Amino acid sequence: MVANFKHMRARWTGALALLLIMAWALLAGCGGAENKNTTIFEAAPPSAAAPVTTPARYRIGLIMKTLTNPFFIEMEKGARRAQEELGVELVVKTGAQETSIEQQIAIVEEMITAGMDAIVIAPGSSTELIPVLKKAQDAGIVVINIDNRLDAALSAKMGLANVPFISVDNEQGAYLSAKCIVDRLKGPADVAILEGIREAKNAQDRKAGAERAFAEAPQLTVVASETAHWKIDEGYTVTKRILEQHPTVKAIFAANDMMGLGAIKYLDESGRQDVLVAAYDALAEALAMVETGKMLCTIDQQAAEQGYLGIQYAVRALKGETLPAETMVDVKLIGQP
């Protein structure tokens, strides 16, 4: 019996030792005394890092007169280049024609509703777009004026302020183009002018530039000055009417290439090879006419550069920069020597 008792005590002692060893191992696995402050909360996985937000891109609207005129296609190309460089979202809208003023107004309204950050606009009218652009400005939208200047007096009257203007010196460009005619016609001659949309400031400036050039040449007489609304078909029709009424006309200044191309088309069809045509815009078709001698000269007003600067100025304004009130892009005379 004593032997059995001793045997059982030995077994209990061994079991107790085994339990002590296991308890020590468990403590060691949890860090033992050195980790006595560890809790189960520290064993939980770390919380996910806060998401990094990317700044929203500026949303800029480019509103042009039309895409039926290659000039504005070039302007859009410049704007797209700025879009790529500056990382903005660019929305391009145009009217159906350069005379589609109501469409431009509706487009501005759409962009106000869409909450655009900025509007860059080549307005078809220097006056009729001012009220809706004031509405856009009141909504906190930056407005940049390119190509055709908004009327300064009416803008001030309606409270449309701090609108940077980017364009060229249209009066000087037209002067240089019409001067090509002056330099070629040495004797007495009658000349005519094809005007743009008369409500547009750039049309007014181009007419004034041509008139200045012709006024410096006492041998020349301006016998007709009519609008063809920037259009090639009207350029054809108005040239036909002018030459029927004044067959002695020896030269025509067209305030844009489209009207000039219309004039040349009529001259070709009527067999009139004795009438010089000078124009404005340096469209590809016009440059081809200059090369063949059918057009005396044209003016490159760097449409792509105007589009590029318009978007760039919008971004700078949105970043709080102070911009110049007026930026003039250089014009380039292109013509036969």
Please, could you describe this protein's structure?
- This protein has 337 residues and is α/β, with parallel strands linked by helices.
- The chain has two domains: 137 residues, 3-Layer(aba) Sandwich (Rossmann fold); 131 residues, Rossmann fold.
- Helix content is 47%, strand content 18%.
- Strands 2-1-3-4-5-11 form a six-stranded parallel sheet, with helices on both faces. It has a four-stranded parallel sheet with strand order 7-6-8-9, sandwiched between helices. It has a two-stranded antiparallel sheet with strand order 10-12.
- Strand 8, helix 9 and strand 9 form a beta-alpha-beta unit.
- Helix 2 packs parallel to helix 11 and helix 6 packs parallel to helix 7.
- 44% of the residues are buried.
- The N terminus is likely disordered.
